[in-house]
Amino acid sequence: MIHQKLLPLVAIAFVLSNGTGRAQDHTKRNVFSVRLGDAQVVIPPPEGFEEASSQFDRVKEGFTATESPINDMVAVFLPTNICEQYRQGKQPGLTFYTKVSVLKAQRETPFSADDLAGVAAEFRRTGIQAMDPNGPKMKAQLEHMEQGLSNLNSRATNIEMSKPINLGEFDVRPNVYSVLLLITLKVASESGSEVRPMLAGMNVLRVKNRMVYLFTYRLYQSRTDVETLTNFSRKWNNMVLAAN
């Protein structure tokens, strides 16, 4: 079943490495779509964001290197002001960002309303337990991220993750299942270490009879960040559904 493959990978928040890479043409940054089997799924950028992985090699390489091996990362949307800094050759830190992924094995597989209901039911039943960083699947995923970042940055990188805290469902309706998690990541290398409490929105959408993950991330600094991220995620969910 599709929903049984979902749970170990929903909560990894990516910490972007430094470096801008080659800036590419961005004149079409607001037009993005992905083919999933016989369906062409349109993913409009959230308001004030633009697709970055097609513009900046380093962004694409970094998010791809830390993606779950069973996923395809298909887009990364970053705030326009962050992309402007990349275009200027700067190295901005990321505190608010998004990622769009699909399951490799399910790119051409129909995803029914019953499948989406199964995803929600399975997450409610075992989601947080499946993402326990001490469990074998999450340990393997963290090791994969460490290796990816180490290779990308040419220096050993260690990642520690807290057990996610489920802050609750915030958008549940036909074709949408969204839940908010709080995760603390500690990333250490020879250049230093950083602890980042991250809010992670997991948005599972049924679009043109296909499954698409919209992940939304925001550095947690105050309670207002919860409202900011959930409102942002709901609005983006609506935009994607309306575009298809």
What does this structure look like?
This protein has 244 residues and is an alpha+beta fold. The protein has one domain. It is built from five helices and eleven strands. The radius of gyration is 17 Å and the shape is globular. The protein starts with 32 loop residues before the first strand and ends with a helix. Mean pLDDT is 84; it is low at 1-22.
Q: What class, by secondary structure content?
A: alpha+beta
Distance between the termini: 25 Å
Compute the number of helices: 5
Q: What Rg do the Cα atoms give?
A: 17 Å
What composes the largest sheet?
A: 7 strands, antiparallel
Supply the number of structural domains.
1
Element-level helix/strand string: EEEHEEHEHHEEEEEH
User: What average pLDDT do the residues reach?
Assistant: 84
Strand content: 25-35%
Helix percentage range: 25-40%
The number of distinct β-strands equals 11
Report the uncertain regions: 1-22
What is the 3D form?
globular
Key descriptive features of the protein:
alpha+beta; 7-stranded antiparallel β-sheet; two-stranded antiparallel ribbon; disordered N terminus
